[in-house]
Amino acid sequence: MNEVFKKAIEDGASDLHIKAGDFVRARIHGELVPLTEQKISHAQVRQLAIKLIPHERDRERIDEITDYDCSWGLPGLGRFRVNILKQRGSFAIVMRIIPIDIPTFEDLNLPPVMERIAQTERGLVLVTGVTGSGKSSTMAAMIDYINRNYKKHIVTLENPIEFLHRDLHSSVTQRDIGTDTESFMSGLRAALRQDPDVLLIGEMRDKITIDTALKAAETGHLVISTVHTKNAVQTLSRLIAVFAPEEQEMIRIRLADSIQAVVSQRLIPTVDGMNRRVACEVMLVTGTIRDCIADPDRMTEIHDLIEAGREQYGSQTFDQHLMELVKSGVVSFDVAKAAANNPNDFDLKMNIFGDAGVQAGQTPPGMENFGA
User: What single DSSP character describes residue 267?
Assistant: First the structure.
């Protein structure tokens, strides 16, 4: 299996799928492709699961496990985020490949404004997107930027720990949920007594965690976390909706006061089909956007404010970034249109009519001076 892992990493895979009765498959450029010529037996998958589980107490109850998360490292190659599951009574394993080297904003093709977001002293910064959209890599790049440039105490709460950060200018404390602390909630409460400057929370998934994260942001800490949402407005709505109706007015006020930025991302196939490029929406919270968050009747204005703030603040909508990717020849028009928030509006803004598409590297009609 080590040779299979090595080949997956060399081929640029993002995930490995290992299931009894199937080939080992790797997700390469967004598609699952077989890596082995022979199918794997239940006994082989079970044995691999035992190898991947870090704790003896959990290995002893292997046949009772139905869902299990952990991380695992292969010396000299990389680390993996591991999920062990049961399907039709047999074991299956899904492994997310985590590079040894922590990526920079430039490596990830993120907009320059990300450095300004990472320089935020206090408040709440959210990185959002569907599963597999690169949220963990973006947060790792933010932590690495802070670690290289500032003398701070960074505390991360992760399930499991993915990227390993060395102490550089900052001191980085990484805590694994289930191993180093009982839960996100207990780890976050304890972290507030550990003299942190920056708190990274792997995911804000429940009311108590969201409330505690807001308290941390309100008391002068920078809190970085993720939410599984598609864009900035949906992120705000999701956080508010977690709370009971009678609590939502106060949560709106607290959120409006604390939130500093929302970065929402999607991975889009490139023109050559050999890679994927991040398309991201960046909401930098201004005074006007804070007013819109606090007022439920004005939430619909936020998208237009993000769009209008590109030149002055560095914010951008998904569609603005997609237009830029099309113009530069990185992404095809059809792929960008399918990924747009509003495909028809995107088509109109690109000034494309009828069935005409944009070929790789071709500037669409009316876009000759775009971005000038």
Answer: E
